[in-house]
Design brief:
Largest sheet: 11 strands, mixed
Helix content: 10-25%
Order of helices and strands: HEEEEEEEEEEEEEEEEEEEEEEEEEEEH
Strand content: 35-45%
Distance between the termini: 188 Å
Radius of gyration: 44 Å
């Protein structure tokens, strides 16, 4: 018992320096093959910095900083999966050793990526992000671009053979906006998969205006027609975002153009189909904070009929009416009567001429 007490007392005397701070300069999630730097920051009294990786028998690295520097930087030119794991650092001075820093978990991504969907959210709502993969990962990690840390959750398996994990964020606020990615890993490995496709979480109502949305040529069209949705705002907008209600795909984004007294963007859709029918809204954002949006425009309903508009048929002869038929019959009868009268006149003339000739012959015979 005396030995144990003495050992603890000596250990306490060793921690004469403040606990250093450890962090990864470019974030704790890094792609395999990329360079990165782990920084250990202590007090000005520190003479030697030591970086230790959990599970390793030897220090990962030691460094003597140049005075008056109070930090050491441990650079990795090209990260591999062996670099993944938990790191701590501590430092030494003539007075003794410091306490170890908090743990930094370095995530090295490799291949295969679980996907996520894309939301536009109102402040105050609760949000659940789901990482899902057809590979049986035991755990998932959610990482926000530019964040200092990531969140881990154990994976669950569905009857369809998918593995997934849910991450609940809420109530959401302006600080929730950003780009997120998720990663998968197996329990027996320190290597993480490559990231999923990025997910932009956009928070509405962070700019004090609403753009307007209109449809050209009309909000009711036929399949195969071309449609343009026009977003406009009198206030400065760098990017317009067009969102379809209930759609899983990422909203469309276009840089705005300054026209006359407003900013606008035209979202063109060629040869539309009935699948594009639905309710649309547009939002505006500024480059200084691209994930914080304006209020949404009034909704616009686009209706696309399933049939393709037929081309115009060639002009056809109008169908005759009863009156026109009677008129035609009257004209035809008059023509027939006229022909008959002319025939009778011709016959009469011929008969008269024949009778006159016979009289002349008879009169000559009598003489």
């Amino acid at each position: 018992m005396t030995f144990t007490f003495t050992a603890l007392l000596c250990l306490g005397e060793m921690w004469t320096l403040h606990k250093p701070i450890i962090k990864a300069e470019t974030g704790s999630v890094v792609t395999s093959g990329s360079p990165m730097t782990i920084c250990c920051e202590g007090s000005l009294d520190a003479e030697i910095y030591v970086l230790h990786k959990e599970g390793s028998q030897k220090p990962w690295g030691t460094q003597t900083p140049e005075k008056p520097e109070n930090k050491a930087k441990f650079s990795i030119p090209s990260v591999t999966k062996q670099h993944g794991g938990q790191y701590r650092c501590y430092c030494y001075s003539s007075a003794g050793w410091s306490e170890r820093s908090d743990t930094l978990e370095l995530v090295v991504t490799g291949e295969q990526a679980p996907p996520m969907t894309n939301p536009i959210l109102d402040p105050g709502k609760s949000l659940t992000l789901q990482c899902c993969s057809d590979i049986n990962y035991d755990r998932f990690a959610l990482y926000k671009l530019g964040g200092a840390d990531f969140t881990q959750n154990g994976g669950q398996w569905t009857q369809s053979g998918l593995s997934l994990a849910n991450f609940t964020l809420g109530p959401v606020s302006s600080s929730t906006g950003g780009q997120y990615r998720c990663y998968g890993a197996h329990n027996l490995s320190s290597e993480w998969s490559a990231s999923s496709d990025p997910l932009d979480i956009l928070i509405t109502g962070q700019r004090p205006f609403s753009p307007s949305l209109s449809v050209k040529p009309n909000s009711t069209v036929h399949s195969g027609d071309n449609v343009t949705l026009l977003c406009q705002s009198p206030y400065k907008v760098d990017t317009f975002i067009l969102s379809k209600e209930g759609a899983a795909q990422q909203p469309q984004q276009l840089k705005s153009k300054s026209e006359a007294w407003d900013f606008q963007a035209e979202f063109s859709m060629s040869a539309v189909t009935s699948a594009l029918s639905g309710t649309y809204r547009c939002y505006g954002s500024q480059d200084s904070s691209p994930y914080l949006l304006s209020y949404g425009s009034d909704p616009v309903e686009l209706m696309v009929s399933g049939s393709i508009r037929a081309s115009s048929p060639p002009p056809s002869r109008p169908m005759p009416t009863a009156a026109s038929e009677n008129q035609d019959h009257t004209v035809e009868n008059l023509i027939r009567m006229g022909m008959a009268v002319m025939i009778l006149i011709v016959i009469g003339i011929l008969v008269f001429e024949g009778w006159g000739s016979q009289r002349q012959i008879h009169h000559a015979a009598e003489k």
